[in-house]
Design the sequence.
């Protein structure tokens, strides 16, 4: 919720810069997962195991997100130092995203989804991951805009419901991926 908080407390521009940092971090994590995946033995049993593991990861993250209680006013030092520059917001977004261990696991699950569920290989996985990163960036920019424009309407209750929706979606995708591990054809 650093994106929403930054957009509410600072500006739309600041929120967008934070989102750019998050997307850069996502790109690095996705590339690491993709490169790691491409070095592994790609047997059928490996795909099944990867699907089960990736599905389990998504279910756990979905359940965690579903029951996570957000705080609209998390402690930050944004106000203390005046208006931070462009690179500071980008770095903050990159750092906040990079220190979250679930980000790397999420991208590992997405590589698994692309290869196991959709049967993508090589460049197709790269396009799939890039599409996700660009979609997330677009969504983050939209969230920054909405948060900045509707700052007086955002409430803790709304954030809780947003967490629930995201959690349910992640659980659903996780179950689908997990089930794909059991139904793979030779």
Sequence:
């Amino acid at each position: 919720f650093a994106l929403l908080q930054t957009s509410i407390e600072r500006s739309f521009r600041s929120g967008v810069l934070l989102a750019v940092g998050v997307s850069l971090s996502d790109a690095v994590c996705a590339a690491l997962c993709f490169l790691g995946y491409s070095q592994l033995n790609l047997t059928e049993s490996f795909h099944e195991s990867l699907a089960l593991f990736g599905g389990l990861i998504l279910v756990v993250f979905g359940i965690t997100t579903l029951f996570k209680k957000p705080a609209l006013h998390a402690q930050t030092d944004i106000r203390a130092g005046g208006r931070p520059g462009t690179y500071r917001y980008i770095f903050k977004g990159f750092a906040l995203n990079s220190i979250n261990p679930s980000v790397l696991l999420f991208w590992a699950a997405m590589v698994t989804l692309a290869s196991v569920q959709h049967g993508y290989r090589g460049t197709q996985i790269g396009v799939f991951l890039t599409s996700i990163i660009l979609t997330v960036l677009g969504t983050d920019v939209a969230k920054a805009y909405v948060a900045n424009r509707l700052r007086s309407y955002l409430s803790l209750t709304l954030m809780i419901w947003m967490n629930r929706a995201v959690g349910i979606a992640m659980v659903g995708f996780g179950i689908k991926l997990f089930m794909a591990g059991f139904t793979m054809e030779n």
